[in-house]
């Protein structure tokens, strides 16, 4: 947990859950596991607000709690992790992926779940159906059962999972009617390790749910009204048989999908469309058989791959073999050969692929920031490992003076490291080799921190921009509201234009410019996150292999 | 120029051996890097396309809705300022948002908002201790008595001791239920009643218990 990460987490929490949650969240991040009393004491926030903030954090999975770390009977402790909070940055991508895979229904299901942290299946299905009906043309509506099937499909493919039940839910659940709320006195010491959702056997089991009907259309279009109605509907609804089972988005599964997508598109860029389709088929075949942390997929024979290729690609068997050998020979090593049986056994080297993609990212960062000739030096060092200054100049074929300048710039940016190897133990400069080298993993880590810093700066800038023109934004919002209400009440067109003219031309220009800036900043956040994802997965993949 | 010459001269070894000739040393730096340095290369433009636009829209929509959900907790606003017309509507919406009821089965019990039941909880917190202490005392005494009476007539005492704890347990349970019922109706009477009985349990009851044996 670095300062950059904490700063970014704080900004994300503030944007999505308000400043109080930000304060509590960053306090937990900085101070580690703490109990309720300590949090209240050290943050100086009122008890009620702290409780609410913790509820919000737990609801969104950003905070875990456990009791009895310091022996039985000790107060419940709360812990947050940066990883989960940083996922907020990737929410748009999850939703978009769900849309491409499962259409609008899938999109809305994921969106609802991300917005609310976790929900029961019945309430999710209801809200989604209502929202879909809202967007459909008059007279048509969405059936609950249709949404429920989409939900079941998402569970089946592990994009959704059950929230792990509370560890001592059984004991306190039964005890509550007799002795209401005995806070801080758990029955037995609970293991400190938080349970992973996967460790429960029912993790991906869809409960039986009785929910018939279809989405209802709200008559009034006002948003606040909508929410209240939806809430009311939820309140007075009867039981559906799935109460107490709440669902959350399985981020790991989404990350696996992103990883596969990254590999496929890299191959498409490097080789051609056909080879990317072959790789896609291989990855799809091994989706179920390969564990999430495996370094490479289970070996697949060329025959199997051929059989699984969609017929629409029109790839003949000999061509497939040629493509496979081509992919194996490729320096990026996405595909490896594991044996000769069955027409050749092939694997997808997942971790090598990630490492190579991360390396390509590093190279392109150097190229875009320091120019292509610096990038040449950087690549040279990556390939040759250790080089003396003289060798760098010679191999890179760059005039000595410029090469030195670039090398020193890279060194001062920590992209290149210097290794001293003395011939004699006195480290006398004249009898010492000075070897330049690039360490990929530490450099990637540094770049990751830079990315976090970049996103935090982007958010900060966006907040600043919108704060600067707060008055203007409020004015335009007000006028829009007036326009909408006028239109609803069927006002004269002259009246409408009159209201519209309340915003002057210069103001309109300013608003337009502001919109452009904010869009750019937001878009940049999304795209930096793509780099973050790639480097993060590379770093975690090295952690799991070593 | 002169400064650089001195710098090179200050080394105790032949600098030329390192491949650093005169004039090939990078210029010495003074002070830290500027906060916003000039960049030699212009940044690459952002990717643009349908995907990016859609994700941008999703991001902005997400932020908008999240800020209206009850999960977005506002700090208590200072009322010292002049109340504005718009604030009245904002407040109304806030009140509506408050009724968010999470699934308490997944949250620690201590986070549940305490409302009017403050006194009731205090009572229940105290109670278990007392009961257990009383129980333990009773039990010890009973065991003592048992040891004494065992010598005399074992059958009788056995029967009695079996009966006794059962009765007591029932009593305790009865107390609890009573208390809850009463609590919801009226706190004041309950606490008064409870205290009286607890006091009695502490002193009189036990004496009586001894006397019967």
UniProtKB/TrEMBL annotation, chain A:
It is found in: Nucleus. It holds the Pfam family RPC3_helical. Its main location: nucleus. It comes from the Eukaryota. Keywords: DNA-directed RNA polymerase, Nucleus, Transcription. Residues 8-66 form the RNA polymerase III subunit RPC82-related helix-turn-helix domain. Belongs to the eukaryotic RPC3/POLR3C RNA polymerase subunit family. This is DNA-directed RNA polymerase III subunit RPC3.
Automatic annotation (TrEMBL), chain B:
Residues 115-128 have a biased composition (Basic residues). Belongs to the eukaryotic RPC7 RNA polymerase subunit family. It comes from Zoarces viviparus (Viviparous eelpout). GO terms for cellular component: RNA polymerase III complex. The lineage of its organism: Eukaryota, Metazoa, Chordata, Craniata, Vertebrata. It is found in: Nucleus. This is DNA-directed RNA polymerase III subunit. Residues 129-166 have a biased composition (Basic and acidic residues). It comes from the Eukaryota. The keyword Nucleus applies. GO terms for biological process: transcription by RNA polymerase III. The keyword Glycoprotein does not apply. Residues 115-213 are annotated as: Disordered. Keywords: Nucleus. Pfam families: RNA_pol_3_Rpc31. Residues 167-188 have a biased composition (Acidic residues).
